[in-house]
Known about the structure:
The chain is an alpha/beta fold. The protein has helices at 10-22, 37-44, 62-73, 88-96, 113-124, 132-140, 153-163, 168-175, 179-192, 203-212; strands at 2-6, 26-31, 48-52, 78-83, 102-106, 129-130.
Amino acid sequence: MRVIVxxxxxxxxxxxxxLLESEGHEVVDTVSRPEQVAAxxxxxxxxxxxxxxxxxxxxxxxxxxxxxxLRAARPRLGILVLSQYAVPExxxxxxxxxxxxxxxxxxxxxxxxxxxxxxxxxxxxxxxVVDPDVVGELLTAKRRNDPLDALSERERAVLRLMAEGLSDxxxxxxxxxxxxxxxxxxxxxxxxxxxxxxxxxxRRVLAVLVALQK
Length: 214
């Protein structure tokens, strides 16, 4: 996979380059500042970009704004945003801009080459990857009239894994249950969250959005 790495730290850029190349990916460019991103993407035509949340000049949410701009211009581009801390607001903004092919992970989550490569593969397939720490924090928060309160503990566990981008088969393997059991949990989640069945909406993504927006 052709990847551009976007981070103001040369240590992080080179570290990610080594991790990616060890998994057979090609890092076609590295970028240190937000204003360089659009030109690099237009020139190199990558399959995916990996970028930090906090970049110059304000070191707040530059990465989120870059990702939203890239998603609007390139709907098929894989976008993986990395953050030092779990900030639910950032994840919600990213998914609202277009969940397919979008990921939000903590930096510690991608220290292993295989984990980073798996995340990129899910994004390239149009999947959505949300850090389980973000989803877990939101799912455990108690709020009045929260539709998530209707979910059982096992259904919450399934929803967390859906947010990580796992398929039903992947969830079954992680939870050591049958594929049919996972399918039942997923149907219950859709019903309890009152998600419509349409040919357009991806109800798995909608379920994750419900979790993030509460």
